[in-house]
Amino acid sequence: MQKNNTVKAINKNVRSSQRKISLVLDHIRGKKVGIVLKDLEFIRKKISLDISKTVKSALANAENNKQYDIDNLFIKEAYVGKSLVMKRFRPRAKGRASPIKKPFSRITIVLSEKKEAKDGSKN
């Protein structure tokens, strides 16, 4: 039986659409955590700050709760889901109103530990 060596962090109410967030998440998936945090500093999208905060939270969970070595951690999964939607209305011509949807998202980051064997091969 193999032990579960994953750590998870969820950022629940992020004020951005899933489409904008998934562009950044596709860029960081599968990379080492140290490289990801450096990359997120230079990505020119506002949402990269919230994603960086979620990655740092998962890193703190791994370090404090599971005592993992932070140098061996990589991003196993990074995905985004729907959360609540604020509904607003904009006045239009002839007394009508059109709806405006302001979506919120839920970012989930799953870290895993990659152990190096003594012969140099990876698990």
How would you portray this structure in words?
A 3-stranded antiparallel beta sheet has the order 1-3-2, with helices on one face. The protein has helices spanning 18-28, 33-42, 48-64, and strands at 6-14, 73-91, 97-113. The protein has one domain (6-113): Alpha-Beta Complex (Ribosomal Protein L22, Chain A). The chain is of the alpha+beta class. It has 3 helices and 3 strands. A hairpin with a 5-residue loop joins strand 2 and strand 3. Helix content is 31%, strand content 37%. It is elongated.
Beta-strand portion reads 35-45%
Instruction: Please report the number of helical segments.
Output: 3
- Helical content class: 25-40%
Name the structural class: alpha+beta
| Main pleated sheet | 3 strands, antiparallel
What is the 3D shape? elongated
Overall pLDDT score: 90
Task: State the order of secondary-structure elements, H for helix, E for strand.
Answer: EHHHEE
Taking all Cα atoms into account, the compactness measure Rg is 19 Å
Parts with pLDDT < 50 across at least 5 consecutive residues: none
What's the CATH topology name?
Ribosomal Protein L22, Chain A
